[in-house]
Amino acid sequence: MPSKKLTHYEYLKKHWSGRLRKVQKKAYARHGDSLAWIHSSAQKLLLGSTGLFLLTQPVATSAIARVTQSQNAQVKTLEKSHHTNQTLVTQLASQLPNTIDPLTIEQESNVIQTLSSYFNLRLFATLDNKRLNRSYGLIGAEQHLTRYPGDSIPTHFHTQADTIFAPSGVAPGRGAWGYFANSKEELTTADIEREKWYIAVPTFLSPGWQEDPNSLYTFFKYRKMLVVNPQNGKAVIADIADTGPAEWTGKHLGGSPEIMDYLERQDGTARGPVLYFFIDDPGDTVHLGPIQVQ
Protein backbone atom coordinates (compact mmCIF):
# COMPACT_ATOMS: atom_id res chain seq x y z
CA MET A 1 0.00 0.00 0.00
CA PRO A 2 1.48 3.43 -0.89
CA SER A 3 2.46 5.50 2.13
CA LYS A 4 0.23 8.40 3.14
CA LYS A 5 1.62 11.78 2.08
CA LEU A 6 2.35 14.08 5.02
CA THR A 7 0.74 17.46 5.17
CA HIS A 8 2.96 20.51 5.40
CA TYR A 9 2.11 20.93 9.14
CA GLU A 10 2.84 17.31 9.94
CA TYR A 11 6.12 17.49 8.04
CA LEU A 12 7.32 20.54 10.02
CA LYS A 13 6.22 18.97 13.35
CA LYS A 14 8.16 15.77 12.64
CA HIS A 15 11.21 17.68 11.43
CA TRP A 16 11.46 20.04 14.38
CA SER A 17 10.63 17.34 16.96
CA GLY A 18 13.58 15.36 15.69
CA ARG A 19 15.89 18.34 15.86
CA LEU A 20 14.64 19.17 19.42
CA ARG A 21 15.46 15.66 20.63
CA LYS A 22 18.98 15.94 19.19
CA VAL A 23 19.53 19.34 20.91
CA GLN A 24 18.24 17.97 24.24
CA LYS A 25 20.60 14.99 24.05
CA LYS A 26 23.59 17.26 23.37
CA ALA A 27 22.60 19.67 26.17
CA TYR A 28 22.16 16.93 28.79
CA ALA A 29 25.39 15.32 27.64
CA ARG A 30 27.32 18.55 28.29
CA HIS A 31 25.30 20.15 31.17
CA GLY A 32 23.23 17.34 32.70
CA ASP A 33 24.14 18.07 36.33
CA SER A 34 23.31 21.76 36.05
CA LEU A 35 19.99 21.15 34.35
CA ALA A 36 19.00 18.56 36.97
CA TRP A 37 19.78 21.06 39.78
CA ILE A 38 17.69 23.76 38.09
CA HIS A 39 14.76 21.38 37.74
CA SER A 40 14.98 20.25 41.37
CA SER A 41 15.36 23.81 42.68
CA ALA A 42 12.37 24.98 40.70
CA GLN A 43 10.20 22.30 42.31
CA LYS A 44 11.43 23.20 45.79
CA LEU A 45 10.87 26.88 45.14
CA LEU A 46 7.33 26.18 44.04
CA LEU A 47 6.60 24.09 47.15
CA GLY A 48 8.22 26.64 49.46
CA SER A 49 6.30 29.53 47.95
CA THR A 50 3.04 27.62 48.30
CA GLY A 51 3.76 26.84 51.97
CA LEU A 52 4.70 30.44 52.71
CA PHE A 53 1.52 31.63 51.03
CA LEU A 54 -0.61 29.33 53.19
CA LEU A 55 1.14 30.31 56.42
CA THR A 56 0.71 34.02 55.78
CA GLN A 57 -3.01 33.84 55.16
CA PRO A 58 -5.17 35.51 57.89
CA VAL A 59 -7.55 32.56 57.92
CA ALA A 60 -4.80 30.13 58.86
CA THR A 61 -3.46 32.40 61.63
CA SER A 62 -6.95 32.95 62.95
CA ALA A 63 -7.61 29.23 63.03
CA ILE A 64 -4.41 28.58 65.00
CA ALA A 65 -5.37 31.30 67.48
CA ARG A 66 -8.82 29.81 67.92
CA VAL A 67 -7.37 26.38 68.63
CA THR A 68 -4.91 27.83 71.18
CA GLN A 69 -7.66 29.80 72.92
CA SER A 70 -9.86 26.74 73.02
CA GLN A 71 -7.10 24.65 74.59
CA ASN A 72 -6.38 27.34 77.21
CA ALA A 73 -10.09 27.57 78.05
CA GLN A 74 -10.26 23.80 78.49
CA VAL A 75 -7.28 23.87 80.88
CA LYS A 76 -8.83 26.66 82.94
CA THR A 77 -12.16 24.87 83.04
CA LEU A 78 -10.41 21.71 84.24
CA GLU A 79 -8.64 23.67 86.97
CA LYS A 80 -11.89 25.34 88.08
CA SER A 81 -13.69 21.99 88.18
CA HIS A 82 -11.38 20.99 91.05
CA HIS A 83 -12.22 24.09 93.10
CA THR A 84 -14.31 23.15 96.13
CA ASN A 85 -14.59 24.44 99.67
CA GLN A 86 -12.59 21.45 100.86
CA THR A 87 -9.73 21.93 98.39
CA LEU A 88 -9.63 25.60 99.42
CA VAL A 89 -9.42 24.65 103.10
CA THR A 90 -6.62 22.20 102.36
CA GLN A 91 -4.60 24.69 100.33
CA LEU A 92 -5.01 27.49 102.87
CA ALA A 93 -3.93 25.15 105.68
CA SER A 94 -0.60 24.70 103.92
CA GLN A 95 -0.13 28.47 103.54
CA LEU A 96 -1.22 29.82 106.94
CA PRO A 97 0.84 29.85 110.14
CA ASN A 98 0.00 27.50 112.99
CA THR A 99 -0.87 30.47 115.21
CA ILE A 100 -3.16 33.40 114.42
CA ASP A 101 -0.36 35.89 113.82
CA PRO A 102 -0.02 38.63 111.20
CA LEU A 103 0.95 37.12 107.87
CA THR A 104 4.35 37.72 106.33
CA ILE A 105 4.54 39.37 102.91
CA GLU A 106 5.21 35.97 101.33
CA GLN A 107 2.30 34.35 103.15
CA GLU A 108 -0.04 37.17 102.13
CA SER A 109 1.07 36.84 98.52
CA ASN A 110 0.44 33.09 98.46
CA VAL A 111 -2.95 33.38 100.15
CA ILE A 112 -4.06 36.21 97.86
CA GLN A 113 -3.10 34.16 94.80
CA THR A 114 -5.15 31.23 96.11
CA LEU A 115 -8.23 33.29 97.01
CA SER A 116 -8.11 35.27 93.76
CA SER A 117 -8.16 32.01 91.82
CA TYR A 118 -10.96 30.45 93.86
CA PHE A 119 -13.23 33.51 93.86
CA ASN A 120 -12.20 35.21 90.61
CA LEU A 121 -11.54 38.55 92.31
CA ARG A 122 -8.70 41.09 92.27
CA LEU A 123 -7.54 41.01 95.88
CA PHE A 124 -4.95 43.10 97.70
CA ALA A 125 -3.54 43.44 101.21
CA THR A 126 -2.39 46.92 100.23
CA LEU A 127 -4.50 49.09 97.93
CA ASP A 128 -3.60 52.65 96.92
CA ASN A 129 -0.68 52.42 99.38
CA LYS A 130 -3.13 51.84 102.24
CA ARG A 131 -3.66 48.75 104.35
CA LEU A 132 -5.00 47.51 107.67
CA ASN A 133 -2.77 46.41 110.53
CA ARG A 134 -3.30 42.76 109.54
CA SER A 135 -5.16 40.51 107.08
CA TYR A 136 -5.62 37.41 109.24
CA GLY A 137 -7.22 37.54 112.66
CA LEU A 138 -10.00 36.67 115.08
CA ILE A 139 -13.47 37.96 114.25
CA GLY A 140 -16.06 38.86 116.87
CA ALA A 141 -19.79 39.50 116.70
CA GLU A 142 -21.14 43.03 116.19
CA GLN A 143 -24.65 44.39 116.63
CA HIS A 144 -26.82 45.85 113.89
CA LEU A 145 -26.11 49.49 112.98
CA THR A 146 -28.71 52.26 112.99
CA ARG A 147 -29.28 52.98 109.31
CA TYR A 148 -31.23 56.26 109.66
CA PRO A 149 -32.56 58.39 112.53
CA GLY A 150 -35.21 56.41 114.39
CA ASP A 151 -34.21 52.98 113.02
CA SER A 152 -34.70 50.21 115.58
CA ILE A 153 -35.32 46.46 115.81
CA PRO A 154 -39.06 46.75 114.91
CA THR A 155 -38.18 48.68 111.71
CA HIS A 156 -34.85 47.07 110.89
CA PHE A 157 -35.86 43.90 109.06
CA HIS A 158 -37.52 43.69 105.65
CA THR A 159 -38.32 39.96 105.52
CA GLN A 160 -39.64 37.51 108.08
CA ALA A 161 -36.55 35.35 107.62
CA ASP A 162 -34.27 38.22 108.65
CA THR A 163 -35.97 38.58 112.03
CA ILE A 164 -33.91 35.66 113.34
CA PHE A 165 -31.13 38.23 113.77
CA ALA A 166 -33.23 40.49 116.01
CA PRO A 167 -31.72 39.16 119.27
CA SER A 168 -28.37 40.74 118.31
CA GLY A 169 -29.86 44.16 118.97
CA VAL A 170 -28.88 47.55 117.57
CA ALA A 171 -25.64 49.26 118.57
CA PRO A 172 -26.05 52.52 120.51
CA GLY A 173 -25.24 55.57 118.44
CA ARG A 174 -24.22 55.57 114.81
CA GLY A 175 -21.52 53.79 112.87
CA ALA A 176 -18.13 55.41 112.29
CA TRP A 177 -19.38 57.07 109.09
CA GLY A 178 -22.75 58.14 110.43
CA TYR A 179 -26.15 57.06 109.19
CA PHE A 180 -26.48 55.16 105.91
CA ALA A 181 -29.43 57.38 104.94
CA ASN A 182 -30.95 60.61 106.21
CA SER A 183 -34.42 59.07 106.64
CA LYS A 184 -36.40 55.87 106.21
CA GLU A 185 -37.82 57.25 102.97
CA GLU A 186 -34.33 57.83 101.56
CA LEU A 187 -33.04 54.38 102.52
CA THR A 188 -31.94 52.53 99.37
CA THR A 189 -31.30 48.87 98.64
CA ALA A 190 -27.58 49.67 98.59
CA ASP A 191 -27.85 51.15 102.10
CA ILE A 192 -29.67 48.06 103.36
CA GLU A 193 -27.01 45.73 101.93
CA ARG A 194 -24.14 47.82 103.30
CA GLU A 195 -25.47 47.54 106.83
CA LYS A 196 -26.40 43.90 106.46
CA TRP A 197 -22.95 42.78 105.30
CA TYR A 198 -20.70 45.18 107.21
CA ILE A 199 -17.50 44.59 109.13
CA ALA A 200 -15.81 46.73 111.75
CA VAL A 201 -12.03 47.06 111.47
CA PRO A 202 -9.50 48.95 113.63
CA THR A 203 -8.76 51.72 111.16
CA PHE A 204 -6.97 53.56 113.98
CA LEU A 205 -4.29 50.84 113.96
CA SER A 206 -3.61 51.04 110.22
CA PRO A 207 -0.18 52.29 109.11
CA GLY A 208 -0.16 56.07 108.62
CA TRP A 209 -3.27 56.78 110.70
CA GLN A 210 -1.48 59.14 113.06
CA GLU A 211 0.03 61.11 110.17
CA ASP A 212 -3.00 61.31 107.85
CA PRO A 213 -6.24 60.11 109.46
CA ASN A 214 -8.52 62.06 107.13
CA SER A 215 -7.20 60.35 103.99
CA LEU A 216 -7.51 56.91 105.54
CA TYR A 217 -10.94 57.70 106.98
CA THR A 218 -12.16 58.51 103.46
CA PHE A 219 -10.46 55.47 101.93
CA PHE A 220 -11.92 52.94 104.37
CA LYS A 221 -15.53 54.16 104.13
CA TYR A 222 -17.62 51.29 102.67
CA ARG A 223 -14.46 49.74 101.24
CA LYS A 224 -15.23 46.22 100.00
CA MET A 225 -13.33 43.25 101.37
CA LEU A 226 -13.42 39.50 100.87
CA VAL A 227 -13.80 37.78 104.24
CA VAL A 228 -13.06 34.03 104.30
CA ASN A 229 -13.38 31.40 106.98
CA PRO A 230 -10.27 29.28 106.28
CA GLN A 231 -11.68 26.35 108.23
CA ASN A 232 -14.76 25.75 106.04
CA GLY A 233 -14.07 27.74 102.86
CA LYS A 234 -17.14 29.96 103.25
CA ALA A 235 -16.75 33.59 102.16
CA VAL A 236 -18.65 36.86 101.94
CA ILE A 237 -18.15 40.17 100.21
CA ALA A 238 -18.32 42.71 103.05
CA ASP A 239 -17.90 46.46 103.38
CA ILE A 240 -16.21 48.46 106.11
CA ALA A 241 -18.92 50.45 107.90
CA ASP A 242 -17.61 50.80 111.45
CA THR A 243 -14.38 50.86 113.43
CA GLY A 244 -13.24 48.53 116.18
CA PRO A 245 -12.88 46.40 118.12
CA ALA A 246 -10.56 47.71 120.83
CA GLU A 247 -7.23 45.94 121.23
CA TRP A 248 -7.99 44.79 124.77
CA THR A 249 -10.83 42.57 123.48
CA GLY A 250 -8.36 40.21 121.84
CA LYS A 251 -10.37 40.41 118.61
CA HIS A 252 -9.01 41.86 115.38
CA LEU A 253 -12.23 42.75 113.55
CA GLY A 254 -15.98 42.41 113.94
CA GLY A 255 -18.73 41.08 111.69
CA SER A 256 -22.44 41.82 111.41
CA PRO A 257 -24.85 39.18 112.76
CA GLU A 258 -25.52 38.07 109.17
CA ILE A 259 -21.81 37.66 108.40
CA MET A 260 -21.13 35.72 111.58
CA ASP A 261 -24.04 33.41 110.84
CA TYR A 262 -23.04 32.72 107.24
CA LEU A 263 -19.36 32.16 108.00
CA GLU A 264 -20.32 29.95 110.95
CA ARG A 265 -18.21 32.05 113.28
CA GLN A 266 -19.03 32.63 116.96
CA ASP A 267 -17.93 35.09 119.58
CA GLY A 268 -16.49 34.36 122.99
CA THR A 269 -14.34 31.32 123.62
CA ALA A 270 -15.50 29.69 120.37
CA ARG A 271 -14.32 32.54 118.16
CA GLY A 272 -12.13 31.71 115.20
CA PRO A 273 -9.99 33.37 112.52
CA VAL A 274 -10.83 34.81 109.12
CA LEU A 275 -8.85 36.14 106.20
CA TYR A 276 -9.78 39.58 104.85
CA PHE A 277 -8.44 41.41 101.80
CA PHE A 278 -9.38 44.50 99.81
CA ILE A 279 -11.29 44.01 96.56
CA ASP A 280 -10.31 46.20 93.63
CA ASP A 281 -13.76 47.18 92.34
CA PRO A 282 -13.62 50.71 90.84
CA GLY A 283 -16.75 50.07 88.77
CA ASP A 284 -18.77 48.91 91.80
CA THR A 285 -19.73 45.67 90.04
CA VAL A 286 -19.02 43.25 92.91
CA HIS A 287 -22.16 42.63 94.98
CA LEU A 288 -22.16 42.37 98.75
CA GLY A 289 -23.09 39.09 100.42
CA PRO A 290 -22.10 35.42 100.20
CA ILE A 291 -19.85 34.29 97.36
CA GLN A 292 -19.15 30.72 96.24
CA VAL A 293 -15.87 29.20 95.05
CA GLN A 294 -15.62 29.27 91.26
How would you describe the overall organization of this protein?
With 294 residues, this protein is α+β, with helices and mostly antiparallel strands. Mean pLDDT is 85; it is low at 37-47 and 49-55. The chain has two domains: 8-76, no CATH class; 83-291, RlpA-like domain (Barwin-like endoglucanases). It has helices at residues 8-55, 58-81, 85-95, 105-119, 153-156, 189-196, 213-220, 257-263, and strands at residues 123-124, 136-141, 198-201, 224-228, 235-243, 253-255, 273-279, 289-291. The chain is elongated. A six-stranded mixed barrel has the order 2-6-3-5-4-7.
Q: What structural category characterises the helix and strand content?
A: alpha+beta
**Major sheet characteristics:** 6 strands, mixed, barrel
Outline type:
elongated
Our measurement of the CA-to-CA distance between the termini, rounded to an integer number of angstroms, reads 97 Å
Provide the CATH architecture of the largest domain. Answer: Beta Barrel
Number of domains: 2
Strand order within the widest sheet? 2-6-3-5-4-7
Detail the poorly predicted runs: 37-47, 49-55
Helix content: 40-55%
Question: What is the number of beta strands?
Answer: 8
* CATH class wording of the largest domain: Mainly Beta
Rg, please? 38 Å
Instruction: Output the helix-strand order.
Output: HHHHEEHHEHEEEHEE
Percent strand equals 5-15%
What is the H level of CATH, i.e. the homologous superfamily of the largest domain? RlpA-like domain
Figure out the total of helices: 8
What fold name stands as the CATH topology of the largest domain? Barwin-like endoglucanases
